[in-house]
Amino acid sequence: MTKKPKVYALSTCPYCKRTRRFLDEHKIAYDCIEVDLLDDAEQDKAIEEIQKLTGKSSFPVVIIGDEIIVGHDEERLRKALKL
Amino acid sequence: MTVHEIERVFCPVCLAKFKFAEGWKEGDLVICPICGQKLRLVRSAEGWIGKRPEKGTEKEIRERSEEFARIRGYVFGDVKEEIIEGLMGKYKRFGDFYCPCRMNHTPEFQCPCKPTRGGDVEKDGRCYCWFFLKKT
After folding, report:
1. Residue A64: per-residue pLDDT
2. Would you call B87 and A12 a contact, using CB atoms and an 8 Å cutoff?
3. What is the CATH classification number for the domain harbouring B106?
4. Chain A residues touching B89 at Cβ < 8 A
5. How far apart are CA B97 and CA B119, in angstroms?
6. Is the pLDDT at A75 greater than 60, yes or no?
7. Three-state SS string across B48-103, please?
8. How many CB pairs below 8 A link A and B?
9. 3-state secondary structure of B133
10. B44 pLDDT exceeds 80?
11. A35 contacts B89? CB cut-off 8 A
12. Higher pLDDT, B19 or B3
């Protein structure tokens, strides 16, 4: 079985909400990390991970298998999830 | 010869100083021409400063955004209400109206953020969040 998609989001960001809504509407199970709601140490770790993966700190970041999608991009989500 | 120094008002939101206009007096409500914040004029030992009369309220951030858009001639994107909600979330958790689409909680990312105040909308047609858009 392939790993569940992982979403790095900000609780205040409208585009993160749209990505999560898109996944919910397509009944995709995923893990979501709301980076701004983590405590300091966990937050630093998550930001470091995002920077390592994407080279920047933009949100949302969606990891689906080897695919890393930065920003709300339904076309790329569909493709990566084979919808 | 007497040199008259131009009086300026310090804005606690964008941290800039703008010109004190003729006729203004202590207690007046004025709008910061740089970020759109409504300020009450107070004279301090360091000169004129602006106080935020409705600090932290939804009214404050709505008015600031609307004044900023009016001053610059921008329009709002369709995410306006979600951004306002996000800005309220930032205030609650991080103590001020920082950009809801970023993890930067420093004064330069107070909405409207420094890149936006610096002309990103003219350059890119939009701010980082697509909150402020250039009129087409």
Report:
1. 96
2. yes
3. 3.90.460.10
4. 11-12
5. 20
6. yes
7. EEEECCCCCCHHHHHHHHHHHHHHHCEEECCCHHHHHHHHHHHHHHHCCCECCCCC
8. 38
9. strand
10. yes
11. no
12. B19
pLDDT higher than threshold 80 for residue B40: yes
A36 touches chain B (CB under 8 A): yes
Residue A1 within any structural domain of the chain? no
Cβ-based contacts of B100 with chain A (< 8 Å): 10, 12-14
Q: Is A18 left (phi over 0), alpha (psi -120 to 50) or beta?
A: alpha
Structural domains of chain B, count: 1
Structural domain includes residue A19: yes
Domain of residue B101, residue span: 74-134
The mean of the pLDDT values for chain B is 95
DSSP string, A8-62: EE-TT-HHHHHHHHHHHHTT---EEEEGGGS-HHHHHHHHHHHHHHHSS--S-EE
pTM value is 0.93
CB contact (8 A) between residue B103 and residue A57: yes
Q: Which amino acid is at A80?
A: A
B93 with A36: Cβ contact below 8 A? yes
Asked if residue A6 lies in contact with residue A31, where contact means CB atoms within 8 angstroms, the answer is yes
